[in-house]
Design brief:
There is one protein chain. This protein is an alpha/beta fold. The protein has 2 domains: 158 residues, Rossmann fold (3-Layer(aba) Sandwich); 84 residues, SIR2/SIRT2 'Small Domain', CATH 3.30.1600. It has 9 helices and 9 strands. The longest helix is centred in the first third of the chain and has 16 residues. The mean pLDDT is 96. The structure holds adenosine-5-diphosphoribose (APR). Adenosine-5-diphosphoribose (APR) binds next to helix 9.
Length: 255
């Protein structure tokens, strides 16, 4: 089936669905200028995730982890939601029972106005006390892009502050994990821009399929999910979503 027919098939499935779940990864924000992780030019090709995104790495060199986090804050602050974020935001307002589950920490879905977003890996703007101390909340928002001193200190107890995103080996935020599991009970589950290599998030696609959802993957590359989903669309998200949207809501084209 060529992509034109796949776009139409996806649009028909979305139109008929009452419950829609969209699952997004770093590929969705690539067009906004935020590097992915595992693509040829990806972040993890330049820095070691074990050093930058684990408790052990933080313990070994907290200043280095904060230099990386501060650089990411500066990059993300300059980026804008792209066409894919805007189309998904429109869908989240048009389809009342739509959930967006994102692995991305860039908050671009929220900045595009998307409703009902579940952040599985937290936000780049989250911080937390590294102890954690009793006086501080689990995590809180701190939108600074540069800190006087790295690593910064927890203002509740003076211990080191840590970036508040979810690191490898850490549990997902309970509420987001629970609601994401519930959201796999849907009519159509659309996975967009994720390599599907990081668990437990990557399990959601198979869970949705097992629950009877029509599963769609939008990714220019092959992933472990490609052979599992009901419909695999090999295309960048910004092209696939625009084509699907053109079928759902044909704009009045100049004749
Ligand atoms: N449209 C759709 N997909 C794209 C695009 C695009 N324009 N550009 C790249 N991709 C695809 C790539 O082919 C790749 O399969 O996006 C995927 C990005 O994969 P990763 O870099 O592994 O990112 P992701 O799947 O989100 O990583 C999951 O890993 O490091 C952790 O916590 C981090 O949330 C992240 C998790």
């Amino acid at each position: 089936m060529d992509n034109e027919r796949k776009f139409r098939k996806a649009a028909e499935t979305i139109r008929r669905a009452s419950k829609i779940t969209v699952f997004t990864g770093a590929g969705l924000s690539a067009l906004s200028g935020i590097p992915t992780y595992r693509d040829p030019g990806g972040l993890w090709k330049h820095v070691d995730p074990k050093e930058m995104a684990t408790k052990q790495g933080f313990r070994k060199n907290p200043a280095q982890v904060w230099e990386f986090a501060q650089w990411r804050r500066k990059v993300i602050k300059e980026c804008q939601p792209n066409q894919s974020h805007r189309i998904l935001a429109d869908w989240s307002k048009r389809y009342s029972q739509m959930t967006v589950i994102t692995q991305n920490i860039d908050d671009l879905h929220q900045r595009a106005g998307t409703r009902n977003v579940l952040r599985l890996h937290g936000s780049v703007w989250d911080v937390a006390c590294s102890l954690p101390c009793e006086d501080s909340p689990r995590r809180w928002r701190d939108t600074r892009t540069s800190f006087k001193r790295l690593p910064p200190k927890c203002h509740f107890c003076g211990a080191l502050l840590r970036p508040g995103g979810v690191w490898f080996g850490e549990r997902l935020p309970l509420a987001a994990a629970f609601q994401s599991a519930q959201a796999t009970q849907c009519d159509v589950f659309i996975s967009i821009g994720t390599s599907g290599e990081v668990y437990p998030a990557a399990r959601l696609i198979g869970d949705a399929k097992e629950a009877g959802a029509f599963t769609i993957e939008i990714n220019p590359d092959f992933t472990p999910a490609t052979g599992v989903v009901s419909l695999s669309i090999h295309s960048p998200a910004e092209i696939a979503l625009q084509n699907i949207e053109d079928v759902l809501c044909p704009s009045i084209k100049d004749s």
